[in-house]
Amino acid sequence: MKEILIITNYFPPETGAASNRIFHLAEGLQKHNFTVSVITPLPNYPTGKVFKAYKGCFKCTSKENNISVHRIWIYASNSKNKLLRLIAMLSYSFSLFWFFIWNKIPKTVIIQSPPLLVAFTSVLFLRSKKRKLILNVSDLWPIAGLELGALKKNFSYKLLEKIERFNYKHSNLILGQSNEILNHVTSIFPNKHIFLYRNYPNFEAPKLIQNGSSNGKLKIVYAGLLGVAQGVYKLCNELDYSNIQLHIYGDGAEKQKIEDLIAENRALDIVYHGEVTRQELHKELLNYDITIIPLINRIYGAVPSKIFEYARLGLPMIYFGGGEGENLIKTYSLGWVAKAGDYKHLNTVISKIQVSDLQLKCKKKIQQTSIENFNFNTQLGLLVKKL
């Protein structure tokens, strides 16, 4: 059996798209007769604190679904302070370096990026003519940081650009979750080997049901990270609640602001359900008419994994983020699109959606589109041929 190592910042029991993506990749490779091992920090996302079960550990190795998982030390932090976040990334990079010194590393390694510094550490110390490095790029940093307003075009930005290019240059294969990512890579290194690896879900498509509306209102659901990039707090303030009810699931930096808004404005038809497990969430989502996928800014290269997950659940979508994600919604008829950042247009789009547009027939069509076009096992099979 061929050995393969995956280096990632996120892995279960942590929740979220990144954790799910890497877990399914590791599990899928294991089923394709690879001996899979994973290096990841002690679980700390999204709280920025090491989970209770791992507190006091410097490292922890376990066997999970026949996958060897090495959890190593990190100075955990989700602080808005850029210095503390940098220290957190550097601490994980240091732990990786220490791990590389004392452990035998397989000939094939998949490295998750971002974070850029973690990917840089892995590429720097593992590059070898005898080793195949595969860089799995899920977001384009530092470009995304610039578009989110987290970075400015200064010396630090130029340094991150150099790190980004170093990572691409010394990787044998680049996996990108969007065509925009791959176009960016080939604009710098035209001859680089690339592969489109979408974040397709890997769960059994559920049997769909026809749900009833809430007091005649359209039941809209948002589920996911309540972070700055998603802009859910602003969304809550800008929506017209005349004919809709908004339900929210998740956790993140804006959680308290959203809870305070609901408490202080009882007239707003918003229900916050907190955070639930992914399995529980899938069951809950079947009870809603439609979901909304917002981004505060259009981010080049970003394609929310929610698109593929919701399609498999047969859930129609309102996409409010622009870019390649918008094109996917239109191309595969997965729902409705509103102009990124234009809340007036968003409310207009929502006002034209009728509950009759969201009957069981519509949901089954979306689910069938997902099964035919967003197939995890088909995609993985194509990737395996390149490893």
From TrEMBL:
It comes from the Bacteria. Residues 232-353 form the Glycosyl transferase family domain. Keywords: Membrane, Transmembrane, Transmembrane helix. The chain crosses the membrane at residues 83-102. The keyword Transcription regulation does not apply. CDD domains: GT4_WbuB-like. Residues 17-187 form the Glycosyltransferase subfamily 4-like N-terminal domain. Pfam families: Glyco_trans_4_4 (PF13579), Glycos_transf_1 (PF00534). Gene3D superfamilies: Glycogen Phosphorylase B (3.40.50.2000). InterPro entries: Glyco_trans_1, Glyco_trans_4-like_N, Glycosyltransferase_grp1. This is Glycosyltransferase family 4 protein. It comes from Flaviramulus multivorans.
